[in-house]
């Protein structure tokens, strides 16, 4: 999978302006038959070009909704490398995960992007549960499905995780050696941030927030309402005043320029104990596959990529690529 490094970097360069600057607009964008909202999305399946195939499959009792992308001139009797794409926190397969899946398919890969369990178009209650164990199982479930897809060379299976999906990709790769290479883009360590706050901004309230989460869990168990964290509708003015570019730019991408009705930042408050006691940057010495980690030079999330990369001491052909901002 040495080629994965080059291909992901190429895909990165083609969409850098979208994921970092989010300057395009939804105004005038025609309705997409698959509700894809990323720029340059497929609008019809044309013979000889990249095609999209909506699929569903089960992980335990949860029905997962996913999109498989096949490369130009796809021939099921041939063998192709494949890439599993894990979406950001709050994102869905029709947004940036689908963008990367399509771009990689254009380069000859069979790719899959799926909505996490209890999120997007996937089933599961309560809605928007966001637990690390579930997200890792989502990634492994994508690997299960795509490994059986006609034309996939299971000896050439890669994993790309974006933002929060990047943290879960690192953890999935530690134990799942079906992934022959792993790449992350602007990796976000969900456990670290839910515990300490972004850039350690909430250290003083760790125990208070844990108690609130446990109270929410008790309420759910008693049949009461499901309480949600980050359940706030921001105005543009509120977003502009946020001290972190991650949240400012995330607001415009997910709520304005590339909004999708299934995408939301909110998650069940009862998920917090699982998140706060988890960390993407532990046991990274278990990764012995090739590792590529990409981040912007001025990204305020870069500290998470730096830490994880330094701890992945056994990764083969390890590379950290910094994109100039």
Q: What does this protein structure show overall?
A:
35% of the residues lie in helices and 20% in strands. With 325 residues, the chain is of the alpha/beta class. The strands form two sheets. Strands 1-2-4-3-5-6-9-10 form an eight-stranded mixed sheet, sandwiched between helices. Strands 7-8 form a two-stranded antiparallel sheet. Strand 3, helix 2 and strand 4 form a beta-alpha-beta unit. Helix 1 crosses helix 2 and helix 3 packs across helix 4. The protein starts with a helix and ends with a strand. One of its GO terms (molecular function) is hydrolase activity. It holds the Pfam family Peptidase_S15.
Outline:
This protein has helices at residues 2-21, 96-106, 132-147, 164-175, 190-196, 206-221, 236-240, 245-257, 272-276, 302-311; strands spanning 51-59, 62-70, 80-86, 110-114, 152-162, 181-185, 228-229, 267-268, 290-296, 316-323. The chain has 325 residues and is α/β, with parallel strands linked by helices. InterPro entries: AB_hydrolase_fold, Polyketide_trans_af380, Xaa-Pro-like_dom.
Instruction: Report the helical percentage.
Output: 25-40%
- Overall pLDDT level: 93
The CATH topology is Rossmann fold
Helix and strand pattern: HEEEHEHEHEHHEHHEHEHE
Estimate the strand proportion: 15-25%
Biggest sheet character: 8 strands, mixed
What spatial form do the alpha-carbon principal axes imply? Answer: globular
**Whole-angstrom Rg:** 19 Å
Fill in the keyword field for this structure.
10 helices; Rossmann fold; 10 strands; globular; two-stranded antiparallel sheet; single chain; 35% helix; 325 residues; alpha/beta
């Amino acid at each position: 999978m040495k080629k994965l490094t080059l291909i992901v970097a190429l895909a990165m360069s083609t969409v850098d302006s979208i994921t970092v600057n989010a300057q395009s607009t939804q105004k005038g964008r025609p309705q997409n038959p698959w509700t894809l909202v990323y720029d340059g999305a497929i609008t019809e399946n044309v013979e000889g070009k990249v095609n999209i195939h909506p699929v569903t499959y089960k992980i335990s009792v949860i029905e997962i909704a996913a999109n498989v992308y096949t490369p130009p001139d796809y021939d099921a009797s041939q063998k192709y490398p494949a890439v599993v794409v894990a979406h950001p926190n709050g994102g869905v397969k029709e947004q940036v995960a689908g963008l990367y899946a399509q771009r990689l398919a254009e380069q000859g890969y069979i790719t899959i992007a799926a909505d996490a369990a209890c999120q997007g178009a996937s089933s599961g209650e309560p809605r928007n549960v966001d637990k690390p164990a579930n997200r890792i199982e989502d990634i492994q479930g994508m690997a299960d499905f795509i490994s059986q897809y006609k034309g996939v060379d299971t000896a050439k299976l890669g994993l790309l995780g974006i933002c929060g999906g990047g943290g879960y990709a690192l953890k999935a790769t530690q134990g799942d050696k079906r992934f022959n290479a792993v790449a992350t883009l602007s990796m976000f360590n969900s456990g670290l941030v839910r515990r300490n706050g972004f850039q350690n901004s909430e250290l003083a309230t760790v125990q208070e927030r844990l108690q609130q989460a446990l109270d929410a869990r008790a309420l759910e168990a008693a049949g009461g309402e499901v309480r949600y964290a980050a359940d706030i509708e921001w105005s543009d003015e509120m977003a502009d005043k946020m001290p972190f570019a991650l949240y400012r730019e995330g607001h415009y991408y997910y709520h304005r320029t590339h909004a999708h009705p299934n995408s939301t930042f909110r998650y069940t408050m009862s998920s917090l104990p699982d998140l706060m006691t988890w960390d993407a940057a532990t046991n990274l010495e278990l990764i012995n596959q090739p590792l590529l980690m990409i981040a912007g030079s001025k990204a305020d999330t870069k500290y998470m990529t730096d830490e994880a990369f330094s701890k992945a001491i056994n990764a083969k052909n390890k590379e950290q690529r910094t994109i100039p901002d």
